[in-house]
Amino acid sequence: MPRFAIDVTACWRPQRVGMLTLAVELARALVAGKNGDQFTLLCSRERPAALADLDCEAVLAPYRHEVVLKARWLPAIETQVGCDAILYPYWPSPPRRRPGAPPAAVYVHDLAFRLRPAEVPWQQRAYFGTVLAPALRQAAAVLVPSETTRRDLLAAYPVPGLEGRVTVVPEGVTSPAAPGPLPEGIEPGFILSVGTVEPRKNYPRLLAAYRRLRSRPGALPIVTGRRAGVPQLVIVGRPGWAYGDTLQRIQAELGVRYLGHADEPTLAALYESASLLAYPSLYEGFGLPLLEAMANGVPAVIGKSGGLPELAGGSAIEVDAEDIEAIAGALEKLLGDAALRKKLGEAGKRRAAEFTWERAAASTLEVLRRIGSTGSAS
What we know:
Blueprint: E1 3-7, H1 19-32, E2 38-44, E3 57-61, H2 66-78, E4 85-88, E5 104-107, H3 112-115, H4 122-138, E6 141-144, H5 147-156, E7 166-168, E8 191-194, H6 203-215, E9 233-236, H7 246-252, E10 256-260, H8 264-273, E11 276-279, H9 288-295, E12 300-303, H10 308-312, E13 317-319, H11 324-335, H12 338-352, H13 357-377
Parallel strand pairs: 1-2, 1-4, 2-3, 4-5, 5-6, 6-7, 8-9, 8-11, 9-10, 11-12, 12-13
């Protein structure tokens, strides 16, 4: 009976964003869809709350710190847990693995630290610069969320034989929570932007584009709801890193409402009531906020770099994310054309139906079984 381990040592964090969502949802779908396979979760101190109900074993580390886990605990437990293969869905595998360690499948979410280093914290650049190259050399398989990330990875790391070990495993749409009430002071028809407040999300240019839109003579007519003119811009996302005065600028901008981190019922209500998603990110390996908006039939304005156009599949308006006027023009075009919003929203919803965690788990399980059987035979 095949047995696989999943590293979820990073999943103790309470706010499910980006990489954490992938690790949690993929682990849940793998365990739920097991067909004779057995899974063991490798956890930090306790089983993560989001995975507490899974019918599988768990091994608990006495540590929380990532460096200690990577340098000390994971290399030891890999050889003791008795599995055929191990999945690393959040951070890469330990840079120094011991003889007898099972084959590893490593998920690489994006190459931001190599392609846009100025927008990534130095700690993350140092960490990935240290662990990713050896992880790629040692990995039996490498998973990426998009063809764009696959190309970026192979260009950045010309490791012999790597191309044949890379598999594209797109992320999925999480089953939405029941929508709660909209936050006080927010009416349907607003512009929504979702993402951590950090340089890559491009909030300063979005604010400048929004200001330019509001200042134009004869501002837009009613979009939805009862308000005339340019609707409110609602920003959802926890403070991240290297954002400088961006938070203060968001909070000071006329017509902008900053909510910080939103719980799932609130986020569901926001997607349900938004007129469009403004997501002019400078670079994404995939783009979960875009997929969530598409699943809700919300049309989007997106940056044309990275994996966002691939994910949208023609269902969003693409712009040069460094061009403020282009962002403003795209927002104006979409806000002023109800038929276009409806067309793109419907196209996005059809496209989003292709992305499920069940499909991601099936593709991942196929990889784990392949490398597990190879490892057992060698």
